[in-house]
Amino acid sequence: MATKDIVLAALFAAIIILLGIVPAISLGFIPVPVTAQSLGVMLAGAVLGAKRGVMATLLVMLIAAIGMPILAGGRGGIGVFMAPTTGYLIGWAFAAAVTGYLAERLITPEQTGLTQIVYFFIASVIGGIVVLYALGITWVAFFTGIGLSKAFLGSLIFIPGDILKAGIAALAGRAVMVGYPLLPQRA
Amino acid sequence: MDIRFEDAEVRFAGRTVLLPVRLDLTERRIGIIGLNGSGKTTFARLINGLVRPSKGRILVDGLDVTAEPDAVRRQVGYIFQNPQNQIILPIVRDDIALGLKNSRLPKGEIEFRVQAMLERLSIGELGGRRAHELSGGELQLAALAAILVTEPRLLILDEPTNQLDLRNRNRVLQTITSLPQQLIVITHDLGLLDGFDRVLLFDQGRLVGDGVPADVIAQYEALAA
Amino acid sequence: MKTLYAEGDSILHRASARSKLVGLLLAGILTFLVTSIPLLIGLLVASALLLLSTRLGLKDLLRRLVPLAVTISILCGLTMLLQTVETGIISLLRLTLLLLVSTAVTATTAISDVMDEITAAATPLERLGLLRAADIGLAIGLVIRFVPEVAERYEVLRDAHTARGIRPKTLSLLVPLIILTLRDADEIAAAIDARGVRR
Ligand SMILES: Nc1ncnc2c1ncn2[C@@H]1O[C@H](COP(=O)(O)OP(=O)(O)OP(=O)(O)O)[C@@H](O)[C@H]1O
Ligand SMILES: [Mg+2]
């Protein structure tokens, strides 16, 4: 693994951690913390690509696991891996992987700005919403016994906020690509 | 150490930033001067393989830098133009110890050497501080400590007094003057070069001056005028 | 940065990090095998005693427990309403129990000890050639170093917006923040290579 990949992942992990401190985008009342942190996860995939994006999210999880209160709302410690919302946390790695993979496949430098933004949006929605929710909902359902369909209905409240985040991730992902392209190209 | 440039040339994205150089550096105190963007940093980075030559090669004590960068880097310490980027771990003491991690020394011995190094540079009180809080001068000394602790035989300093106040500048000057190692110093602070054995002058990627400090500095002043 | 480790010399503080982490994992698995409510209550009391044995202050305990406790209560309350009351109660007991035990482990295990366990756990992956265990510690050290720097840069960017009369918005802050931050990667990677930290 190249040293630069480690550094990029570490820098992005720091950005994700910071996004947990800045004021949250608050929507709905269900107690899954809604912060800009999951926006950071979509961006990790969109900006760094799959491999380094996954590394960035894994680093954030490791730092939480060793006992630093760096997740939104000051959560941290090994307990965050034994909670009903753990699926949404572990899901970050999969979200970044899928967002990054799709961004690498779909986006090329020759496309118009609008096309790129649309593709970044699609990648963020599939990775950061579809995949993340699939894991998060399954975990909640299993851990609480509430049942898949009801856990699914309950989490619908968060979808509008996350679509907004995917939009921000798409615009920011494309703007970063113009200013400092890092996304690995796949033929 | 014997640093030999064999027609080394550097191109970045098709633009030549360093024209072929052929020379042999063996002196104990070597200075590098030139205008901004003239290629000083690029030239110095060739010596430890951070920049690779597009043509030609560089030999350090007979080792080809491109082929064996690790072997060369074990002997060549490099202090970056912006030492901020060179601090790796958050706490000064941990960062200095990092360079010894591969040495297989016992933990106690590493701690001892780190403390001794801090004291040698009279920054004993900085050991427990967070690197990102340090002032420019403190940072420069902390970065120097992190490199010196690995006992390199050659030390390359890229503008070591840039950003320093007069007191810290003199402190750094005094520290580097007293070092037993071979030194290569890139600088715009021409007073640092007093007593140096040899000075190189770069202009637009070309080595245009090479000699004793007084002559080359005069040439630089004429060029900048 | 702050940590959730609280210094002390209780029995849990003195236990090895590995035994605590393995114990926690076993507790997690066992808890989900138990379905008897009285037994779960007994286990819950035991884990409360375990947490109290760490001698954390009341305020500190609340600060650590409340956020997740709220989440757990709401989710289990919903489960009681939407499924059966029994399912909801069992979940509530299980999840609270795990919250108490994991809080006790986190509060009594120093960061460096958990790090050592993670590195040890990664060694088999190293043998498979997937990663270098030492890189994990390096990467975590880098992140901890970068967080205050990125935070500072965020403040500076916000001030720069205000100074130019632009209202700071997530998007217009995020883009320069990411570019400015990632741009350092080349130099920092070069420094790591120059210092021979990864060999
Ligand atoms: N990684 C790079 N990619 C492209 N161009 C580069 C790169 N590094 C340096 N250059 C260019 O090479 C030229 C020489 O740069 P160098 O950093 O060696 O100059 P310098 O003499 O050290 O300048 P200064 O006194 O400002 O530090 C400059 O024009 C610079 O823009
Ligand atoms: Mg330079």
From TrEMBL, chain A:
Domain of life from the UniProt record: Bacteria
Bilayer topology annotation: Multi-pass membrane protein
InterPro entries reported in the protein's UniProt record: BioY
Keyword terms: Cell membrane, Membrane, Transmembrane, Transmembrane helix, Transport
Membrane-crossing residue ranges in chain numbering: 6-32, 53-72, 78-102, 114-133
Main localization category: membrane
Compartments (UniProt record): Cell membrane
Family: Belongs to the BioY family.
Protein name in the entry: Biotin transporter
Species per Swiss-Prot/TrEMBL record: Rhizobium oryzicola
Taxonomy of the source species: Bacteria, Pseudomonadati, Pseudomonadota, Alphaproteobacteria, Hyphomicrobiales
Automatic annotation (TrEMBL), chain B:
InterPro entries in the record: AAA+_ATPase (IPR003593), ABC_transporter-like_ATP-bd (IPR003439), ABC_transporter-like_CS (IPR017871), ABC_transpr_CbiO/EcfA_su (IPR015856), ECF_ABC_transporter_ATP-bd (IPR050095), P-loop_NTPase (IPR027417)
Any Pfam family hit: ABC_tran
Transport is among the record's keywords: yes
Keywords: ATP-binding, Nucleotide-binding, Transport
The ABC transporter domain, residue ranges: 3-225
GO molecular function terms listed in the Swiss-Prot or TrEMBL record: ATP binding
Family recorded in the similarity comment: Belongs to the ABC transporter superfamily.
Name assigned to this protein: Energy-coupling factor ABC transporter ATP-binding protein
Lineage, highest ranks first: Bacteria, Pseudomonadati, Pseudomonadota, Alphaproteobacteria, Hyphomicrobiales
Automatic annotation (TrEMBL), chain C:
Coiled-coil zones: none
Keyword presence, Hydrolase: no
Keyword Membrane belongs to the record: yes
Location(s) in or outside the cell: Membrane
InterPro entries found in the cross-reference section: ABC/ECF_trnsptr_transmembrane
Transmembrane regions: 21-53, 65-85, 92-111
Keywords attached to this entry: Membrane, Transmembrane, Transmembrane helix
Membrane topology: Multi-pass membrane protein
Family: Belongs to the CbiQ family.
Protein name per UniProt: CbiQ family ECF transporter T component
